[in-house]
Amino acid sequence: MRQLIMEGQRRCVPAGARSTIDRMPTLRNRRLEQLLGGAIDETLTYAQVKGLIPHTAEGPDLDFKRDTYTSSDRDRKALCTDVAALANANGGILVLGMDEDEQGRAATDTGVVISDDERRRLRQTVVGNIQPTPTFDILPIEDPDRPGTGFLVIWVARSATAPHAYVAQNKSMLYPKRIGTETAWLSESEVAEAYRARFAGFASRIEEAARIEADFVQRLAPDELFVVVTLVPDLPGSATINSAALKAFQMRNASCEVGAFGIPVGKFHRSTVRRRCLVGTASLERSKPYSRLACELHETGSGVFGCAKIESRPDVKDLKVKLADNLWLTLTIGTGLNLLARHARDQAAAGGLATVRTTIWPVTSEVPVSLVSNVGWRNEPVGGELVSEPPVAETVADIDDLSAGGAGLAAATHRLASELFQAFGAAEAEGVTPEGAIRLPYWHQGWHAEISRWAGSSGVEVLREANA
Predict the structure, then answer these.
(1) CA-wise closest residue to 187 among 163, 204, 206
(2) Facing residues of 291 across strands?
(3) What separation, in Å, do the N-terminal and C-terminal C-alpha atoms of the chain show?
């Protein structure tokens, strides 16, 4: 892997840092966007929200609140009920600081406090009392004539992990759902049906990830050994594939390497398109199999990434057993997860959870694969088992956690890499931990400084002792 680190090239914004072009996922609701005259994100203005007065009425996806929710038990339940009810329906927004008339139409911009502390309190209330936590955000929209006061717009995305329960103080679980402009409580049979739909949706996303992967590996160079990572958001986003999008993709790839944990693995030298997706490849050759490094980023926010290990020793190429370096596998999984999640979040505005999958390709009975380590002795066997068919690992991870590139990325990498390692008879990927820390002794010494710098800037714990 050392030869993959290309000195003198400009790298992408480090994982864990946000660039000026990054954006949080947004609520995609065409009706509300038309009412507000724009996207429901940080660009929303006070004039746009106030423009709902006087003709816009509450609806299944829109609720007005004159006041904010206080810290009382009653208001804590009210906030969580309102948020969970939208998540269990089709999503929508709560506009705090907007009074309504007798017909439920926006009437007066009363305003509420929009401080960071207030937003943090509301967010913690939702996160602490709704299971599972829905995808939501709280947007402060300041009144230019009343600094510190304005609207708090709480947007809640349509959820693939419904049903969402409000967990009462006595630990009972209540399942609200917004129907029209009212909130109803789901019956036992309705809750059971919602869980059935959730699990059926998860199965379909696993199938979609396998389909995307199978389509992608057909275009990989068959004489190279790839780690392939696939991501499918629970709720599809919508990225635009046009000339402007391709140009922006080309510019990003021209100036950036991809990598994880502070270590780059390579660069896309060619950027192009396929049907409904952007394509990046390390090779400049057209109409040739993908070599060394490739990705396909779909307009739905799904994507697939592959990285091949470059062998510098001729004798390794001639072996009847292919060797998979354990650090190459771990690093490639982390790189793929971060790259694909950033596409889902920043280009397709997808948020929440995603199904992620990884495999090694090609693996056959004629040329099986052995897992090895090169941290100490060269090509030291890890686990001791030969694998004669592509091993597969699957899990679910939060798109924002993967995009941020910190402990959440390391933890998800551990889950996927460990499942692949177990196919070779090794218990886990020891370079990362289930909690998202880095075990430094299991990485090449020449990488320690880079990894430590990345960990410091990303708030990731570094363990300097070997696994007990």
Answers:
(1) 163
(2) none
(3) 26
Question: Tokens 């036992």, residue?
Answer: 188
Q: What is the CATH number of domain 30-186?
A: 3.30.950.30
Distance CA(442)–CA(158), nearest Å, equals 41
Residue 6: CB atoms within 10 A of its CB come to 11
Residue by residue, DSSP assigns 126-188 as: HHHHEESPPPEEEEEEEETTEEEEEEEEEEE---SSPPPEEE-TTS-EE-EEEETTEEEEPPH
The answer to whether residues 377 and 319 touch, using CB atoms and an 8 Å cutoff, is: no
d(Cα 363, Cα 426) in Å, to the nearest integer? 18
In the chain, the amino acid numbered 2 is: R
Q: What is the 3-state secondary structure (H, E, C) of 297-355?
A: EECCCCEEEEEECCCCCHHHHCCCCEEEEHHHHHHHHHHHHHHHHHHHHHHCCCCCEEE
Q: pLDDT tens track of the chain, all 468 residues?
A: 333 333 233 345 434 333 333 345 566 778 999 999 998 988 999 999 999 999 999 999 999 999 999 999 999 999 999 999 999 998 999 999 999 999 999 999 999 999 999 999 999 999 999 999 998 999 999 999 999 999 999 999 888 889 999 999 899 999 999 999 999 999 999 999 999 988 888 888 999 999 999 999 999 999 999 999 999 998 888 888 999 999 999 999 988 899 999 999 999 999 999 999 999 999 888 888 999 999 999 999 999 999 998 654 445 555 688 999 999 999 999 999 999 999 998 888 887 789 999 999 999 999 899 999 998 888 888 988 999 999 999 999 989 899 999 999 999 999 999 999 999 999 999 999 999 999 999 999 999 999 999 999 999 999 998 876
Q: Give the CA distances from residue 119 to residues 73, 80, 223, 291, in Å, rounded to whole numbers and listed in that order.
A: 18, 14, 54, 47
CA contacts within 13 A on the Cβ side of 6: 12
Q: Where are the domains of the chain?
A: 30-186, 198-424
